[in-house]
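Appendix B. Chain record.
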Amino acid sequence: MSALLDVKDLRVSFGGKEVVKGINFSINAGEKLALVGESGSGKSVTALSLLRLALNAEISGHAIFDGRNTLSLSEQELEGLRGDDIAMIFQEPMTALNPLMTIGRQIAEIIELKKGASPQEAHKRAIELLIEVGIAEPERRAENFPHQLSGGQRQRAMIAMALSCSPKLLLADEPTTALDVTLRLQILDLIGELQKTRNMAVLLITHDLNLVRKFADRIAVMERGHVVEQGSVSDVLSSPQHAYTQRLLASKPVRDVLLANADAAPMIQADKLRITYPKPLGGFKGWFKKGEFIAVHEASLNLRQGQTLGIIGESGSGKSTMALALLGLLPAASMQGQVFYERKRPVAGINTAGVATENIASMKFDTSLRQSLQVVFQDPYSSLSPRMTVEEIVGEGLRIHEPLLDAAQRQVRVLSALNEVGLDETQFPNLLLRYPHEFSGGQRQRIAIARALIVNPQTIILDEPTSALDVTIQQQVLQLLQKLQRERGLSYLIITHDVDVIRAMAHEVLVMKDGLVVEQGSVDAVLNAPQQHYTQLLVAAAD
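Structure tokens predicted for this chain:
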């Protein structure tokens, strides 16, 4: 049987630098092939090149689809192929969708252009597609703009657009990366169901081997522009032959933390913490007063010295909101409850007797508390200033908390902090004078950790510290955090939606859904024998 798509000696270069280096693979009709690799391996460029969508790329080789080489077609011939026969789901729907057009109009536009349908027919078909991809209230959602939909709904809308012309091949570029763990499985199940009913071939581009195991028929593994191994999913994942594939499979986070000490001093305590935001009311009432959205419902937690408390939940559960509140970074929020740091209250001039409903929105952090409590944010590329050098970024805290240090003393401390997180001038000449864009994602996260460490904190809040990283880099960063905790006795409050990260790092875990703490306890008790249905779903989705 001849393949639906047969790729031979595909080479892609940018400015004379080759990033895809003579790869070969094929996909049969109705088959699901996963193209796997880390960032920079060339997998996304490969998919874009099949439709000649890689900007300024020099492409050679053959990509034979239904008897035609897509790499040698004219632009007019490609326009007929794109969408009709080969469709693509892009990685981030919020940037791929037009923010100025409703979802229904974006889908209908494709049907009008490709199928010559009238606006009425196209709109009707768009509604049918929204129903097919499982969007509730499709007529109402068709009138929504992208920002009015959740991440999962936006991704479903992207799938509806891709399927609007009934393609034979679907290119899915990291279609679940930006989604929570349970939503990932829902979207993958949806693509799988649609693939079966339409007998459509799927090229799934991902770095998540857990998803590959559940979805694909065959797998091709890419490293630095080469396909280093391919075969059936069962064969490759059960007995990988190439060292790179073996390394990917061995990249699951490993637990290496000290046992919890029940007598350790408390570092952060919160009792009945309630966080609300004002929201507009509809109708006549909205003229006179505002409603209230409760982001966190009376949550309580206790983080002890030298231990890790994990807060897990999906987007919108309130976990990041609670972390920001504990850091005193929500001036617009209305907060009630009690919060203690190292058994001290950071609030000036309030009743020390305390009441469960006392307002803590006016929390005032003194300099010593800011020094003791630091944070590492989710995306190091956006949390590090692109206009500051590494020396300025890491040393900034010393200027505030230890102003008596001179420039030479600060530089010694900066180099020491960077060395502690595995960065030195032997690897990176002129390290201190470099800017964040000159480093990889994992290296940028190490810089962010050094920035937090340099002021010698007791507690670090880690907000999704590995979600933007590839699996092998994620493992390295978690190992670094574990090492620092053992050596320094640090306390971590880690926010994540990744069950594997919680298993590797946490002593205690708190599960949140829709602003509520639905389950909490030791990591073994909660993850090995979850009592609540929501926790059971999270754990099952990670297995």
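Further analysis of this model is presented in Appendix C.
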